[in-house]
């Protein structure tokens, strides 16, 4: 799973994607600082 973490002023948002291409599409659209990472874990609570 590909994870995009978007950093805001005092918070952050995490988005999960099945493919790297989907994650890169989001990175191209946002203007805030963000990181792209890959994990085999799930973020489901």
What does the model show?
This protein has one helix spanning 20-29, and strands at residues 2-7, 12-17, 34-38. A hairpin with a 4-residue loop joins β1 and β2 (12-17). It is built from one helix and three strands. It is of the alpha+beta class and 45 residues long.
Précis, in short:
The protein has 45 residues and is an alpha+beta fold. It is 22% helix and 38% strand. The radius of gyration is 10 Å and the shape is flat.
Notable traits:
alpha+beta, three-stranded antiparallel sheet, 1 helix, 3 strands
The number of helices is 1
Beta-strand segment tally: 3
Q: Stretches where pLDDT falls below 50 for ≥5 residues?
A: none
Oligomeric state, counting identical vs distinct chains: single chain
Q: Classify the secondary structure makeup into a structural class.
A: alpha+beta
Radius of gyration: 10 Å
How would you describe the shape? flat
Strand order of the largest sheet: 2-1-3
Terminal residue distance: 15 Å
Compute the average pLDDT.
91
Order of helices and strands: EEHE
Domain count? 1
| Main beta-sheet strand count, sense and barrel state | 3 strands, antiparallel
Helix content: 10-25%
- In terms of DSSP E residues, the strand content is 35-45%
Write the layout of secondary structure elements.
Layout: E1 2-7, E2 12-17, H1 20-29, E3 34-38
Antiparallel strand pairs: 1-2, 1-3
